[in-house]
Amino acid sequence: MPYTREDNYDDKVTAQIAGHVKEILHLLGEDNEREGLIKTPERVAKALQYLTKGYYQNGIDIIRSATFEEEYEQMVLVKDIELFSTCEHHMMPFIGKAHIAYISNGKITGLSKIARVVEVFARRLQVQERLTVQIRDCIQEALDPLGVAVVIEAKHTCMQLRGVEKSNAVTTTSAFSGIFLKDARTRNEFLNLIH
Question: What is the pTM of this model?
Fold first, then answer.
């Protein structure tokens, strides 16, 4: 496992990634011995390991670590959860927020666990569409609620800083299960609450 927590990197993996980063810098025409770049390969290697730490975490285990029996069958909504992810197409960041709701079927989870699930899947090379579905499926499997709703709104730097260069474009994706999928009133209640 290359990464376990922020301050505990696998030295061998870090060195291997750093070697490749050093070669990339050279190919870009940089001088790796320049003062400002001497430690850059190692910094980039650690940053990449941090940005992909979600591969070594399990969202279902996180939710189930704080699951409680509760006679509550209404919507639980956590909105405006900040997310930072890395686009798998250009390895550039996309940044936004997630809005997540579920309707309990006798089980609830600690609210912070919802945000942690976002982090688990965001800290991987991603596309926003897959990220949205993975979060929904994780919560659905872990809690078996009556339904789950996920909406993500994000800005993609691969679209802002290169290519089409549209800095104000926001991408919105959604994924629903159960009652949110079948009942328009429940889905609309969720959508109204997040806006």
Answer: 0.92
